[in-house]
């Protein structure tokens, strides 16, 4: 990472002059095989004179999916795992992809996207990423650290006032789920949501519900997964750049990777691309869930597709958008004391059995997105069922089963 400048100096540079995308980092994309320089956030008046970081991000590139199909026996094992998992957990619909360089590609859509209207899952549909959004948000923070706009050693009180222990909680603590701060999903939030389930919550609203609340533990002493950690980082992105979160996301990640089918959406009424209905188990069968996406913010309000998920899985695990030293630091983690079923959780990324990525769940959807650096294989799973009665995460369970099929090369 770059050397640290003072927070006031960084904010003066980012806010006082105005943050724009440097012309020298214009995005040039030609399909999925052409490299494109990663976008950088620099002041337009200083772009020419600002030295490049020794660990600055390498050119971003959207790699094509592997050519050809996986062997028939592997495909059969993968599909059997999909069907078994959907039956076991009562999942209405699923979209799944497996990509292995040198071997081929396999994608599958199964079941119903909308039970009431009899709509089948379509390969082009967008799916909620839920907490996979966290991996994008932390990536933005790491990119800004690479550029010297912020430092992971900054404390959150330099950007957001009123956080308990904010003078001791670093951005690194937040990214690694080690802050100890309270989550925003408390009774105050529940009451506000119940009063108006269609209310569009702003990022300030979401963070406001946790400000001043008692800490769960001393910063850095445990790892407890909360949405508030990532939403505070979303506020850091906005404060450090002087721009809306979605605009920074578009410039630094989505455009460089040509992720045209991935969006940050807080108002479900604006979600125009075909997408499934989310469900949760009910005694009378799967029940539709609330469609309010604003309750997640930078912790979970993104949507995407299978192929964009493939691109993000590889990008996230290999550090395409980050400097080498930053990616190495990103992968330093430990098991969570409370949270999703990763073997370890690092900075906005989890690891399970040698696969690196992220999963997500909420309001009727589960998702899992992982890449195995050793083989270059990627797996993406989207399902429209959450809150499974046993507490299982259907998409994560299916990811593990698909990984087992890949590794055995035969039926499960």
Walkthrough of the structure:
This protein is of the alpha+beta class and 412 residues long. The chain has one domain (7-408): Beta-lactamase (3-Layer(aba) Sandwich). It contains eleven helices and 17 strands. Strands 7-6-5-17-16-15-14-13 form an eight-stranded antiparallel β-sheet, sandwiched between helices. A three-stranded antiparallel β-sheet has the order 8-12-9. Strand 15 (355-362) and strand 16 form a beta hairpin. The longest helix is centred in the first third of the chain and has 18 residues, at 72-89. The chain is globular, with a radius of gyration of 21 Å.
Please describe the topology of this protein.
Layout: H1 7-16, E1 19-21, E2 35-36, E3 41-43, E4 60-61, H2 72-89, E5 93-100, E6 104-114, E7 119-120, E8 127-128, H3 132-146, H4 171-175, H5 187-195, H6 203-208, H7 227-241, H8 245-254, E9 263-264, E10 279-280, E11 287-288, E12 302-304, H9 306-318, H10 324-330, E13 344-345, E14 350-352, E15 355-362, E16 365-372, E17 377-383, H11 394-408
Q: Please, what is the oligomeric state?
A: single chain
Shape: globular
Q: What separation lies between the terminal Cα atoms?
A: 43 Å
What is the string of SSEs from the N terminus onward?
A: HEEEEHEEEEHHHHHHEEEEHHEEEEEH
Which segments are poorly predicted (pLDDT under 50) over 5 or more consecutive residues? Answer: 1-30, 34-57
| CATH 2nd-level architecture | 3-Layer(aba) Sandwich
Number of helices: 11
Average pLDDT, rounded to a whole number, is 88
């Amino acid at each position: 990472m770059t050397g640290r400048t003072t927070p006031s100096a960084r904010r003066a540079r980012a806010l006082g002059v105005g943050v724009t995308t440097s012309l020298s980092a214009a995005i040039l994309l030609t399909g999925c095989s052409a490299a494109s320089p990663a976008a950088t956030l620099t002041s337009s008046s200083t772009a020419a004179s600002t030295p490049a970081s020794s660990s600055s991000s390498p050119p971003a590139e959207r790699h094509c999916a592997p050519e050809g199909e996986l062997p028939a026996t592997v495909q059969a094992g993968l599909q059997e795992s999909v069907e078994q998992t959907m039956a076991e957990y009562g999942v209405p619909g699923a979209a799944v992809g497996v990509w292995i360089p040198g071997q081929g590609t396999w994608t599958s859509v199964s079941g119903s996207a909308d039970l009431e209207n009899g709509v089948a899952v379509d390969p082009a549909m967008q799916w909620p990423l839920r907490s996979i959004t966290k991996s994008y948000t932390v990536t933005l923070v790491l990119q800004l650290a690479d550029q010297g706009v912020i430092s992971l050693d900054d404390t959150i009180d330099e950007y957001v006032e009123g956080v308990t222990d904010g003078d001791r909680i670093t951005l690194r603590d937040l990214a690694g789920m080690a802050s100890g701060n309270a989550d925003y999903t408390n009774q105050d939030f529940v009451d506000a949501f119940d009063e108006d389930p269609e209310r569009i919550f702003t990022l300030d609203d979401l963070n406001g519900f946790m400000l001043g609340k008692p800490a769960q533990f001393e910063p850095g002493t445990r790892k407890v997964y909360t949405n508030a950690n990532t939403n505070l980082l979303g506020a850091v992105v906005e404060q450090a750049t002087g721009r809306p979160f979605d605009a920074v996301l578009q410039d630094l990640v989505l455009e460089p990777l040509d992720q045209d089918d991935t969006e940050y959406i807080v108002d479900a009424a604006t979600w125009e691309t075909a997408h499934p209905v989310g469900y949760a188990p009910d005694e009378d069968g799967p029940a539709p869930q609330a469609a309010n996406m604003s309750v997640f913010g930078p912790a979970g309000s993104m949507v995407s597709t299978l192929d964009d998920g493939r691109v993000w899985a590889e990008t996230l695990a290999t550090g395409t958008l980050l400097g080498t030293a930053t990616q190495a630091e990103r992968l330093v983690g430990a098991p969570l004391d409370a949270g999703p079923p990763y073997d370890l959780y690092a900075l906005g990324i989890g690891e399970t059995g040698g696969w690196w990525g992220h999963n997500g769940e909420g309001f009727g959807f589960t998702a899992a997105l992982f890449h195995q650096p050793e083989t270059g294989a990627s797996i993406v799973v989207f399902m429209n069922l959450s809150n499974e009665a046993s507490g299982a995460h259907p998409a994560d369970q299916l990811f593990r089963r698909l990984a087992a099929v890949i590794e055995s090369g035969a039926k499960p």
